[in-house]
Amino acid sequence: MVDFFPGQEFADLDEQKQAMTLEDVLTMRTGLDWNEGDPAYRDLYVSPDWVQHMLDMPMEAAPGSQFNYCSGCSHLLSAILQQTTGMNPRDFAEENLFAPLGMVAVDWERNPTGTPTGGWGLRLTPGEMAKLGYLFLHKGAWDGQQIVSAGWVEAATRSHTGTDGSLGYGYQWWIVPSLGAYTAMGLYGQTIMVIPESDLVIVVTAQMENHNKVFELIERYIAPAVK
């Protein structure tokens, strides 16, 4: 991880922090001492350098050893994309994802330095959410064009680690074994769920405390109704 940011010096750069990999970030197993929610969000928001803030954090566990959901860690992925492509991730996504899929009503929050936030803040219409699900359902292909590699789709949507519940976790996707599905879960119940065996993409927009009722609707009514 630290090799992606040459020239920056990070606090408590011990062997564990130096051993942290991109795979650890993708699977939410960085080992960083992050507690999802406030005050972690607030502290990140007021920091002038979000990468510095995240990688200055002390280590709580060995990288790769345990799952800990970390929105701030997802922001590191946005910063890495900017470092490796030389493009702002918003521009990169526009060129390589949004424009090919015809996604026009996209609003993406940015941090103080102009980098799109990796862990939250992407606002899409239900139709545009469905396009992302459809793209993955069809192994990264869209209208005869390979937008995302099929190998990446396969790797991202299989479980790489257990979590603190019944779900698994891939590369920034939650895995739902009971439904043979994978899902993106946003704040307040926003959901994109893909069930490949049923050739099904389910999109939910909501304003609720968590995803429990969304999952209940899918498991009790939607999935059983598909012929």
Brief account:
With 227 residues, this protein is of the alpha+beta class. The longest helix is centred in the middle third of the chain and has 15 residues, at 71-85. Helices cover 36% and strands 13% of the residues.
Question: Would you tell me the structural class of the helices and strands?
Answer: alpha+beta
Strand content: 5-15%
H/E element string?
HHHHHHEEHEEHEEEEEEH
Which homologous superfamily in CATH is the superfamily of the largest domain?
DD-peptidase/beta-lactamase superfamily
Principal-axes geometry comes out as globular
How far apart are the first and last residues' alpha carbons, in Å? 45 Å
| Estimated radius of gyration | 18 Å
Question: What's the number of domains?
Answer: 2
Low-pLDDT segments = none
Spatial order of the strands in the main sheet?
5-6-7-8-9-10
Main β-sheet description:
6 strands, antiparallel
Percent range for helical residues? 25-40%
CATH topology of the largest domain: Beta-lactamase
CATH class of the largest domain: Alpha Beta
Count of extended strands? 10
Number of helices: 9
- Corresponding CATH architecture of the largest domain: 3-Layer(aba) Sandwich
Average pLDDT value?
96
